[in-house]
Amino acid sequence: MRGVWVVAVVLGLAGCASSAVQQKEQSAAVADARARLGMGQCDMNLAQQVHQLSDPQLDLEAAYLCLQQGQLPPLELVLEDFEKRHPEAPYQDYASYLQAMVPFARFEMAAGDDQERLRVGREAHAQLTGFIRHYPESAYRSEIVPRLETLLEGMAGSEYALAMQDVERGQRERGEARLRYLAKYYPRSKAAVEAQAWLQTGN
Protein backbone atom coordinates (compact mmCIF):
# COMPACT_ATOMS: atom_id res chain seq x y z
CA MET A 1 0.00 0.00 0.00
CA ARG A 2 2.90 2.29 0.86
CA GLY A 3 4.40 1.56 -2.55
CA VAL A 4 1.18 2.57 -4.29
CA TRP A 5 1.12 5.81 -2.32
CA VAL A 6 4.72 6.58 -3.28
CA VAL A 7 3.99 5.95 -6.97
CA ALA A 8 0.95 8.24 -6.78
CA VAL A 9 3.03 11.01 -5.21
CA VAL A 10 5.75 10.63 -7.84
CA LEU A 11 3.22 10.74 -10.66
CA GLY A 12 1.61 13.79 -9.09
CA LEU A 13 4.94 15.58 -8.86
CA ALA A 14 5.74 14.66 -12.46
CA GLY A 15 2.42 16.06 -13.59
CA CYS A 16 3.05 19.31 -11.72
CA ALA A 17 6.50 19.59 -13.24
CA SER A 18 5.14 19.00 -16.73
CA SER A 19 2.45 21.62 -16.19
CA ALA A 20 5.02 24.09 -14.93
CA VAL A 21 7.18 23.51 -18.01
CA GLN A 22 4.21 24.03 -20.33
CA GLN A 23 3.22 27.20 -18.50
CA LYS A 24 6.78 28.50 -18.76
CA GLU A 25 6.88 27.75 -22.49
CA GLN A 26 3.52 29.46 -22.97
CA SER A 27 4.70 32.54 -21.09
CA ALA A 28 7.88 32.68 -23.17
CA ALA A 29 5.92 32.38 -26.42
CA VAL A 30 3.51 35.12 -25.34
CA ALA A 31 6.44 37.36 -24.40
CA ASP A 32 8.05 36.71 -27.79
CA ALA A 33 4.85 37.59 -29.66
CA ARG A 34 4.37 40.70 -27.53
CA ALA A 35 7.94 41.79 -28.30
CA ARG A 36 7.29 41.43 -32.02
CA LEU A 37 4.14 43.49 -31.65
CA GLY A 38 6.17 46.09 -29.80
CA MET A 39 8.38 46.39 -32.86
CA GLY A 40 5.31 47.14 -34.95
CA GLN A 41 5.10 43.73 -36.61
CA CYS A 42 1.71 42.63 -37.84
CA ASP A 43 1.50 39.96 -40.52
CA MET A 44 -0.18 36.61 -41.08
CA ASN A 45 2.71 34.64 -39.55
CA LEU A 46 2.48 36.56 -36.30
CA ALA A 47 -1.31 36.42 -36.40
CA GLN A 48 -1.16 32.63 -36.64
CA GLN A 49 1.22 32.48 -33.69
CA VAL A 50 -1.00 34.75 -31.61
CA HIS A 51 -4.13 32.80 -32.52
CA GLN A 52 -2.51 29.50 -31.55
CA LEU A 53 -1.36 30.87 -28.19
CA SER A 54 -4.99 31.78 -27.49
CA ASP A 55 -4.21 34.46 -24.91
CA PRO A 56 -7.15 36.90 -24.87
CA GLN A 57 -5.14 39.97 -23.90
CA LEU A 58 -2.53 39.23 -26.55
CA ASP A 59 -5.29 38.74 -29.13
CA LEU A 60 -6.62 42.22 -28.42
CA GLU A 61 -3.19 43.84 -28.45
CA ALA A 62 -2.39 42.27 -31.81
CA ALA A 63 -5.79 43.16 -33.28
CA TYR A 64 -5.42 46.81 -32.25
CA LEU A 65 -1.97 47.08 -33.83
CA CYS A 66 -3.17 45.41 -37.03
CA LEU A 67 -6.10 47.82 -37.24
CA GLN A 68 -3.77 50.80 -36.80
CA GLN A 69 -1.65 49.52 -39.67
CA GLY A 70 -4.60 48.64 -41.88
CA GLN A 71 -3.59 44.98 -41.86
CA LEU A 72 -7.08 43.53 -41.92
CA PRO A 73 -6.60 39.80 -42.75
CA PRO A 74 -4.24 39.31 -39.75
CA LEU A 75 -6.71 41.18 -37.55
CA GLU A 76 -9.55 38.91 -38.64
CA LEU A 77 -7.46 35.81 -37.96
CA VAL A 78 -6.40 36.98 -34.50
CA LEU A 79 -10.00 37.61 -33.43
CA GLU A 80 -11.52 34.59 -35.17
CA ASP A 81 -13.99 32.91 -32.78
CA PHE A 82 -12.78 35.18 -29.96
CA GLU A 83 -15.98 34.87 -27.95
CA LYS A 84 -16.02 31.08 -28.38
CA ARG A 85 -12.35 30.66 -27.47
CA HIS A 86 -12.49 33.09 -24.54
CA PRO A 87 -16.07 33.00 -23.22
CA GLU A 88 -15.05 34.22 -19.76
CA ALA A 89 -12.63 36.90 -20.92
CA PRO A 90 -13.42 40.54 -20.15
CA TYR A 91 -13.64 43.18 -22.87
CA GLN A 92 -15.84 41.12 -25.19
CA ASP A 93 -17.25 44.40 -26.45
CA TYR A 94 -13.77 45.63 -27.33
CA ALA A 95 -13.12 42.52 -29.40
CA SER A 96 -16.45 43.01 -31.19
CA TYR A 97 -15.65 46.68 -31.71
CA LEU A 98 -12.35 45.81 -33.39
CA GLN A 99 -14.10 43.24 -35.58
CA ALA A 100 -16.75 45.77 -36.57
CA MET A 101 -14.03 48.20 -37.62
CA VAL A 102 -12.74 45.81 -40.31
CA PRO A 103 -15.44 46.47 -42.94
CA PHE A 104 -15.39 50.17 -42.05
CA ALA A 105 -11.66 50.26 -42.73
CA ARG A 106 -12.24 48.48 -46.03
CA PHE A 107 -14.85 51.11 -46.89
CA GLU A 108 -12.33 53.89 -46.33
CA MET A 109 -9.68 52.06 -48.34
CA ALA A 110 -12.08 51.80 -51.29
CA ALA A 111 -12.06 55.56 -51.88
CA GLY A 112 -12.40 56.23 -55.60
CA ASP A 113 -14.33 53.04 -56.33
CA ASP A 114 -17.95 53.94 -55.70
CA GLN A 115 -19.36 50.50 -56.48
CA GLU A 116 -16.96 48.85 -54.06
CA ARG A 117 -17.63 51.49 -51.40
CA LEU A 118 -21.34 50.71 -51.55
CA ARG A 119 -20.69 46.98 -51.34
CA VAL A 120 -18.39 47.10 -48.32
CA GLY A 121 -20.37 50.00 -46.90
CA ARG A 122 -23.45 47.81 -46.52
CA GLU A 123 -21.40 45.22 -44.69
CA ALA A 124 -19.88 47.89 -42.47
CA HIS A 125 -23.30 49.32 -41.69
CA ALA A 126 -24.58 45.90 -40.64
CA GLN A 127 -21.55 45.34 -38.39
CA LEU A 128 -21.62 48.77 -36.76
CA THR A 129 -25.37 48.82 -36.09
CA GLY A 130 -25.14 45.21 -34.88
CA PHE A 131 -22.53 46.27 -32.36
CA ILE A 132 -24.76 49.05 -31.04
CA ARG A 133 -27.69 46.66 -30.64
CA HIS A 134 -25.58 43.99 -28.95
CA TYR A 135 -23.64 46.33 -26.65
CA PRO A 136 -25.92 49.34 -26.03
CA GLU A 137 -24.05 50.29 -22.84
CA SER A 138 -20.52 49.85 -24.19
CA ALA A 139 -18.08 52.72 -23.89
CA TYR A 140 -17.11 52.02 -27.51
CA ARG A 141 -20.56 53.06 -28.67
CA SER A 142 -19.26 56.64 -28.72
CA GLU A 143 -16.59 55.49 -31.19
CA ILE A 144 -19.12 53.74 -33.41
CA VAL A 145 -21.71 56.50 -33.81
CA PRO A 146 -19.51 59.07 -35.58
CA ARG A 147 -18.17 56.34 -37.86
CA LEU A 148 -21.72 55.41 -38.77
CA GLU A 149 -22.34 59.03 -39.72
CA THR A 150 -19.16 59.09 -41.81
CA LEU A 151 -20.17 55.81 -43.44
CA LEU A 152 -23.65 56.99 -44.40
CA GLU A 153 -22.34 60.28 -45.73
CA GLY A 154 -19.76 58.43 -47.80
CA MET A 155 -22.26 55.93 -49.16
CA ALA A 156 -24.61 58.77 -50.09
CA GLY A 157 -21.77 60.46 -51.93
CA SER A 158 -21.07 57.27 -53.86
CA GLU A 159 -24.75 56.94 -54.79
CA TYR A 160 -24.71 60.51 -56.10
CA ALA A 161 -21.51 59.97 -58.07
CA LEU A 162 -22.91 56.82 -59.70
CA ALA A 163 -26.16 58.62 -60.51
CA MET A 164 -24.25 61.39 -62.28
CA GLN A 165 -22.30 58.76 -64.22
CA ASP A 166 -25.57 57.23 -65.38
CA VAL A 167 -26.84 60.63 -66.55
CA GLU A 168 -23.60 61.40 -68.38
CA ARG A 169 -23.79 58.04 -70.17
CA GLY A 170 -27.29 58.76 -71.40
CA GLN A 171 -29.04 56.57 -68.80
CA ARG A 172 -31.03 59.45 -67.38
CA GLU A 173 -33.94 57.40 -65.99
CA ARG A 174 -31.54 55.12 -64.15
CA GLY A 175 -29.67 58.10 -62.77
CA GLU A 176 -32.86 59.78 -61.60
CA ALA A 177 -34.00 56.56 -59.93
CA ARG A 178 -30.72 56.38 -58.05
CA LEU A 179 -31.10 60.02 -56.97
CA ARG A 180 -34.61 59.35 -55.67
CA TYR A 181 -33.27 56.34 -53.78
CA LEU A 182 -30.53 58.52 -52.35
CA ALA A 183 -32.96 61.22 -51.24
CA LYS A 184 -35.21 58.62 -49.59
CA TYR A 185 -32.66 56.49 -47.75
CA TYR A 186 -29.95 59.07 -46.98
CA PRO A 187 -32.17 62.10 -46.25
CA ARG A 188 -29.74 63.77 -43.80
CA SER A 189 -26.74 63.61 -46.10
CA LYS A 190 -25.27 66.48 -48.10
CA ALA A 191 -25.61 64.35 -51.20
CA ALA A 192 -29.37 64.06 -50.59
CA VAL A 193 -29.68 67.85 -50.70
CA GLU A 194 -27.82 67.90 -54.01
CA ALA A 195 -29.95 65.06 -55.32
CA GLN A 196 -33.18 66.90 -54.45
CA ALA A 197 -31.91 70.04 -56.11
CA TRP A 198 -30.96 68.12 -59.25
CA LEU A 199 -34.33 66.37 -59.41
CA GLN A 200 -36.17 69.66 -59.05
CA THR A 201 -34.21 71.47 -61.74
CA GLY A 202 -33.41 68.50 -63.95
CA ASN A 203 -29.74 69.32 -64.18
TrEMBL record:
Pfam families: YfiO. Keywords: Signal. InterPro entries: BamD-like, TPR-like_helical_dom_sf. PROSITE patterns: PROKAR_LIPOPROTEIN. Residues 56-198 form the Outer membrane lipoprotein BamD-like domain. This is Outer membrane lipoprotein BamD-like domain-containing protein. The lineage of its organism: unclassified sequences, metagenomes, ecological metagenomes.
